[in-house]
Amino acid sequence: QVQLVESGGGLVQAGGSLRLSCAASGSIFGISDMGWYRQAPGKQRDLVATISGGSTNYADSVKGRFTISRDDAKNTAYLQMNSLKPEDTAVYYCYAHRFITYWGQGTQVTVSS
């Protein structure tokens, strides 16, 4: 079992920045990729960013604004979000893949215009 705890969400004005953290614990050996999805009210959960080894992948809507990173010594993944827009408002979910996919509880990000 892998447990994921997210932090760092909140309310920010458009153009501002936030950094989300996702701390993994439990059976963390062998975690391959980690990343973030987000879900806005009434919409499906969409991929935001992933990191696997040294490779990263981003949704087109966040390229150039968001940066995903991972500190294996701390078993933590980060999502640095800059130039935030109102359309980035959503619940952000961290995930980790180790044989199956584990999910965090989600953290709310609200961007005001």
Number of helices: 0
Poorly predicted regions are none
CA distance, first residue to last residue: 40 Å
Q: Please describe the biggest sheet, giving its number of strands, its sense, and whether it closes into a barrel.
A: 7 strands, mixed
Average residue pLDDT: 95
- Structural class call reads mainly beta
- Outline type: globular
Return the string of H and E elements: EEEEEEEEEEE
Content of β-strand: over 45%
**Radius of gyration, taken over Cα atoms and rounded to an integer in Å:** 13 Å
Tell me the helix content.
under 10%
Number of strands: 11
Walk me through what this model shows.
The protein is mainly beta and 113 residues long. Helix content is 0%, strand content 61%. Strands 2, 4, 5, 6, 9, 10 and 11 form a 7-stranded mixed β-sheet that branches.
Summarize the structure.
This protein has 113 residues and is mainly β.
Task: Name the features.
four-stranded antiparallel β-sheet, 113 residues, globular, mainly beta, 0% helix, seven-stranded mixed β-sheet
List the helices and strands and how they pair.
Layout: E1 2-7, E2 10-13, E3 18-26, E4 33-39, E5 45-52, E6 55-58, E7 66-71, E8 76-81, E9 90-98, E10 100-103, E11 107-112
